[in-house]
Structures are given as structure tokens and as C-alpha cells.
Design brief:
Blueprint lengths: L7 H16 L11 E6 L4 E5 L12 H11 L5 E7 L12 H10 L5 E5 L4 E6 H4 L6 H9 L6
Parallel strand pairs: 3-4
Antiparallel strand pairs: 1-2, 1-3, 4-5
The structure holds tetrahydrodeoxyuridine.
Length: 151
């Protein structure tokens, strides 16, 4: 499978957008602000931040917010995502399990997932490293094609 090549300028743009988004995070409960930026199939960047809630489970992750912004703008494929969290070296922020699945909806297994903080870039992973053997849209299409969907 061909791996998408992220250019230096795309990486810098993602980093800047995610850091700026993190600056607007609403995280009064965890005090763990996160910003995320997604590069779509048209080369556009969409950012999001975490938005917490006094009813804790209603909080929104930065990656989910960035994906929602991408979809709103008409983007349908994520090529790379960069997450700026509050972890430091050795404790980098990677997407939570739920966000890995949300990324799966709009990304191929080679989707690049980069971690960073305010000071440095951390490791990069592919989505398939973070979410192996995943369930995705193709599974649903097979079921519908087989006529097994009951309205
Ligand atoms: N969080 C994100 O927004 N993205 C991640 O990748 C990890 C966790 C948020 C959720 C919550 O608002 C806070 O960070 C602490 O878990």
C-alpha cells in the first residue's frame, strides 16, 4: 500500500494549526488542553480543540472536533492528523480509542497520526498501528450489498 508522504510545509502548517487550536481548548476539568489538525484530500487543514462539559461524558475530543470541521467543509478523506496535547516526551498524546475509530471512518490504514506538544514534535504512527484489524465502512457495505440490512 502506498504511504502518503507528508511534506515539511504541510507538517509545519498542521503543527501551527493544532497549536493554535489547543490555545482555544476548553478543558477546565482535566486541565489537559488538546488541539488537533487534519489534512484532507484537497490539501486543506481543519482544526479542532477539546471541549469539556460539567457532565463529564459529554466532553468532545480535539480530533472529533477537527474531523467535524473537515466534514462541514466538504472533506471526506483524512491524509494526516497532528495532535498537540499536554503530554511531554515519553508521554506523548495519541488519539483515544474512540477517536481512533472516528479517524478510521475517514482514513485509510496508512493515515499518518503525529503527536506533538508545545515544544516539540513527537512520534508518528499510522492508523493501522494504533487501531489494527479495525472495523470500518467496508464492513457495512458488504452487509448492505448482501441485502442483509433490515430497515
Ligand atoms: N483528549 C483529546 O481531546 N484528545 C486526545 O487525543 C486525548 C484526550 C481530551 C479529552 C479530555 O478533554 C482531555 O483530553 C483529558 O482526557
Amino acid at each position: 500500500m502506498p504511504t502518503f508522504t507528508l511534506t515539511d510545509s504541510q507538517q509545519q502548517a498542521l503543527l501551527a494549526a493544532a497549536r493554535q487550536a489547543r490555545g482555544n481548548a476548553y478543558a477546565p476539568y482535566s486541565n489537559y488542553p488538546v488541539g488537533a489538525a487534519v489534512l484532507d484530500e484537497q490539501g486543506r487543514i481543519h482544526a479542532g480543540c477539546n471541549v469539556e462539559n460539567a457532565a463529564y461524558p459529554e466532553g468532545l475530543c480535539a480530533e472529533a472536533a477537527a474531523l467535524a470541521a473537515m466534514v462541514l467543509a466538504g472533506g471526506r478523506q483524512a491524509r494526516a492528523v497532528l495532535v498537540v496535547g499536554s503530554g511531554d516526551a515519553g508521554n506523548w498524546t495519541t488519539p483515544c480509542g474512540g477517536c481512533r475509530q472516528k479517524l478510521r471512518e475517514f482514513g485509510t490504514p496508512d493515515l499518518l497520526v503525529l503527536s506533538a506538544n508545545e515544544l516539540a514534535l513527537g512520534p508518528r504512527h499510522t492508523l493501522s498501528q494504533l487501531l489494527p484489524e479495525s472495523f470500518g465502512p467496508g464492513h457495512i457495505k458488504v452487509r448492505q450489498g448482501a441485502g442483509q440490512h433490515t430497515p
